[in-house]
Amino acid sequence: MGMEDEKLTGTGMDVKDEKPIRTGMGMEDEKLTGTGMDAGDEKLIGAALEARERAYAPYSHFKVGAALLTAEGRIFTGCNIENASYGVTNCAERTALFKAVSEGHTHFSAIAVAGGPAGAEKLPFAWPCGVCRQALAEFCGPDFRILTAGDGQKVRECTLAELLPHQFDSGALGGRGE
């Protein structure tokens, strides 16, 4: 589709490194020929797609899965969990983040997100919402990688700094929390 020059809708960002998804190839430590995506990224995307299947979305019918990679190489997954009182709903990205933090992990290198309408054959590119971006910013640096699967079998990637360029952090609180 030639997306190298396309801007991500509503972000003003350039699309970086759109790559086809090839899961289940059994190549854990090598780059996958022709995709530009290493097996670790494919494993992360696969985990997000699998977590999406467990989403509880009886109201929006928009199912999201996320897979968060710790600095130590462990993957924590999460799915969106809706509630009749919409404000109680929790996003997939925060579910994965809270699971990881509750188990003592606070350093992360990447997250993969896959989301779209229940039963959809092709997923849209679902990026973390603003609340999830801010939650990730508490633990992740500006170079933290965000991958999203969509448009059939493609992946888009950007950094946290590109998605949340002016984050609210402990510096705004006079360094408290550090």
Question: Any key phrases for this structure?
Answer:
178 residues, alpha+beta, globular, Cytidine Deaminase, domain 2, single chain
Low confidence ranges: 1-16, 21-35
Number of helices: 4
CATH superfamily: Cytidine Deaminase, domain 2
Number of strands: 6
Q: Which architecture name does CATH use?
A: 3-Layer(aba) Sandwich
Percentage of residues in strands: 15-25%
Sheet having the most strands: 6 strands, mixed
Helicity level, as a percent range? Answer: 10-25%
What is the count of distinct domains? 1
Task: Write up this protein.
- The chain has four helices and six strands.
- The protein is α+β, with helices and mostly antiparallel strands and 178 residues long.
- The protein has one domain: Cytidine Deaminase, domain 2.
- The chain has a six-stranded mixed β-sheet with strand order 1-6-5-4-2-3.
- The longest helix is centred in the first third of the chain and has 14 residues.
- The N terminus is likely disordered.
Write the layout of secondary structure elements.
Layout lengths: L15 E5 L18 H14 L9 E9 L4 E5 L12 H11 L5 E10 L12 H8 L7 E6 L3 E6 H4 L15
Parallel strand pairs: 4-5
Antiparallel strand pairs: 1-6, 2-3, 2-4, 5-6
In short:
The chain is α+β, with helices and mostly antiparallel strands.
